[in-house]
Amino acid sequence: MGRVGLRRGLRIFTVLLAFAALGVCGCAPVCGPRGSGWLQDVAGHPQKGWWSVRFKIQWPEECDEPLWHVDALLADRVVAPVLNRRRSDVVLWRFHRRAARDDAGHQFSFVFYATRKTADRIYDAIRNNRLLKALEASGTIAAVKIDDTRIVAKPDPCDTSDARWPFSIKKSWPYFIMGASEMWLDLISQAARRCSAKDEPSSPESALEYYRRVNERVEELWRQEGGHALLHHLNALFGYAPLKIGNRGLMRF
């Protein structure tokens, strides 16, 4: 092969290699090998990943139960407005609620899968929420923690699923919990909007009491309707196959 042919062959090889790199780097990770999740696309755009906002909520020593209604208030008045503006940029999202007498305490989290740019915008909007600032000033919210967006630490969609689950469950679960979170948020929104205009909160203190009643309405719906509307129909979706519930053995709903 002459020099011209060799140079032409090298150019073709370089182009093909570039297209191959584009195919690898341009694809969003789908629970693939860990290494693939850290790649950026050829334009230098940041890889998508999981991000979270964790609200640590005061849990007074004299209270046996956590202040669960604060979760509902944060979901409807702090997270929902931002989420609704950014839905086209958020691929997956969910809420996480936990409470124990440990270092983490009572914590409500908004977890979402998006680019670093979207995460920064969501974080800025939440930090600038007036109601949240007032709740922090009053001590109701003890801390608000966000992730460092300089690093995409959890790039795969299944990275926040339980590590003990089979791969197939880890891959599918984010879609299930997003739908469940959407339903819970909508129930809160409906309950809040059904309150009369004269009950609309005008201060952080009245908002807390307002969402205490909202949370009670949603919990009542769960008690009365959740068995059929949720558990029964979820079991039906899986052909009424029985499932293990702790030490109770196999059960159907």
Write out key terms for the chains shown.
253 residues; four-stranded antiparallel beta sheet; two-stranded antiparallel sheet; 6 helices; 6 strands; 49% helix
Structure in words:
The chain has 253 residues and is an alpha+beta fold. The protein is 49% helix and 14% strand. The protein has 6 helices and 6 strands; from the N terminus they run H-E-H-E-E-H-H-E-H-H-E-E. It has helices at residues 3-25, 68-86, 116-127, 130-138, 167-194, 204-237, and strands at residues 49-57, 92-98, 106-114, 141-146, 243-244, 250-251. The strands form 2 sheets. It has a 4-stranded antiparallel beta sheet with strand order 2-3-1-4. Strands 5-6 form a two-stranded antiparallel sheet. Strand 2 (92-98) and strand 3 (106-114) form a beta hairpin. Helix 2 crosses helix 3 (116-127) and helix 2 packs across helix 6. The protein is globular and about 50 Å long. The chain starts with a helix and ends with a strand. Mean pLDDT is 85; it is low at 6-29 and 33-45.
How would you summarize what this structure contains?
The protein is an alpha+beta fold. The chain contains 6 helices and 6 strands.
Distance between the termini: 73 Å
Spatial order of the strands forming the largest sheet = 2-3-1-4
Tally of DSSP helical segments: 6
The protein's oligomeric status is single chain
- What overall form do the CA principal axes indicate? globular
Label the structural class. Answer: alpha+beta
Mean pLDDT: 85
- Rg (C-alpha, Å): 23 Å
Helix share, percent: 40-55%
**Beta-strand percentage?**
5-15%
The overall strand count is 6
Detail the poorly predicted runs: 6-29, 33-45
How would you spell out the order of helices and strands? HEHEEHHEHHEE
Report the biggest beta sheet as strand number plus sense, adding barrel if it closes.
4 strands, antiparallel
